[in-house]
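Researcher: I'm preparing a figure for a lab meeting and need a structural model of a single chain. I don't have an experimental structure, so a prediction will have to do for now. The sequence is pasted below. Please return the structure as tokens so I can convert it later.
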Amino acid sequence: MSDLAAIKAEARKAAFARRKLAHEGARGGRAGVLSSFLAGYRGAPLAGYMPIRTEISPLPAMEEAAAHGPVCVPVIQGPDLPLRFSRWEPGCALKPGPFGAMIPAVDDFIRPEIVIVPLVAFDRHGGRLGYGGGFYDRTLEQLRAQGPVLAVGFAYAAQEADALPLEPTDQPLDIIITEQGVLDV
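Model: Understood. Here is the structure written out token by token.
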């Protein structure tokens, strides 16, 4: 393991512990700030995600957004490949996907203009520490090469870090939303 990989692994471990505590202490209304933010983008194709483990859930905001325009969720195509996004609607049929996240049972791929990005940790400069697979970095790079896309980090405020071990391939977030508010980066 390289020095940077070891540093990232240690940062992830600390961030997972902070996220777990925040998740255990959370009491409803966590997606309210996200819903309010997304109201300004009604109708734009939106990618959310199906939360796993202790991730903050964007589902209430996704359900609200689905009443106004297309919503999709990420589908892993394979190692070292960018994600694709399949249309999702509240109550649609789902099946298990890689890493335990549910995905739509029927593939209907669309290109999102707004991507709600799950994360392990973030900093005030738009830095994001993910799970280490590079899926969102590859995906955001590809989407940005095709046209405008807004990368919205969604996390508990407790997931903030002063600094993160980042690499040149790490794609920055455009904005970060926590249960406490919107952070411009």
